[in-house]
Amino acid sequence: MVLGLIWNLKDDCLSCNINCQKIEGKAITKRSLLSIANHIFDLIGFTAPVTLKPKLILQVIWKLKLKWDENLPENILNQVKQWLEQLPILAGIKIPRCLNLSSNGIKQITLHVFCDAHKKAYAACVFLRIEYEENVFEKLIQAKARVAPLKDISIPRLELLSCTLGTRLAASVKNDLNLPDVCIYYLTDSMTALAWIQRTRDWGVFVFNKVKEIRNLSNVSSWEHVPSEKNFADILSRGCSAQQLIYLRWWEGPSWLSENPVQCPRSKQVPDEEAINLELRKSVLVNTAKRIEEFNWHCKYFSS
């Protein structure tokens, strides 16, 4: 075992430890679902699109204000059962453990961070790209998906949260892999969030604080826009079934990242200036009126 993952010494691969015996026979309630969701330990995050599903279901349960051991509604119960049925498939995912960062023949090492958000969740993932003399190696290093707050929040703000998460992950990976001078590329499909990051304006408190952290952890010039269909964090923020994850082999990264030289997809999308300016700091104009009492000036100096 390595950090909760199964280490196959022969193939030098890591896989997720799925123990279905602990799940079978349990009544599915809010309490047991929370236990099951936290039972799958995946520090890297290659199963994150699948493990996001129960978290989204739990949020729905919280909104319904169900008690911890209360039976779940039929529609929610069916979703949980469907997710549980496919859970053992995750044990078949194997990812290479070794990175070979110090091997000979390396021309360039870069990190590529994808950020995305939807109404119910936001996410980010970091891929390592190693360019050798004859080929290119890419690998998922870390991924995280988080459920959106219960309080309603706009999609652009969620996109900005995903960008904040992406910079944190990149900073962590950069430090853990001891790559102080590595070139990092940040990719988001939100023109609004990108404008907030790149423009120096008097933003409101929420945007100002997030942009400040993003700018502290990354270079503004490293941020680029990527089309939504090419954003590899899309499936991470939407969630998917275990079968879909196996079919897509999401953890292997985008095919265009293996090209030499790498050709980042571009788009001609125009930013929505109205949406961008909604987060400008509000100015409050206060008009004051001063009333001057009229009186005879000589009364101040002479008594009657």
Automatic annotation (TrEMBL):
Pfam families: Peptidase_A17 (PF05380). Transmembrane segments: none annotated. SUPFAM superfamilies: Heme-dependent peroxidases (SSF48113). It comes from the Eukaryota. One of its GO terms (molecular function) is peroxidase activity. GO terms for biological process: response to oxidative stress. InterPro entries: Haem_peroxidase_sf, Retrotrans_Pao. This is Integrase catalytic domain-containing protein.
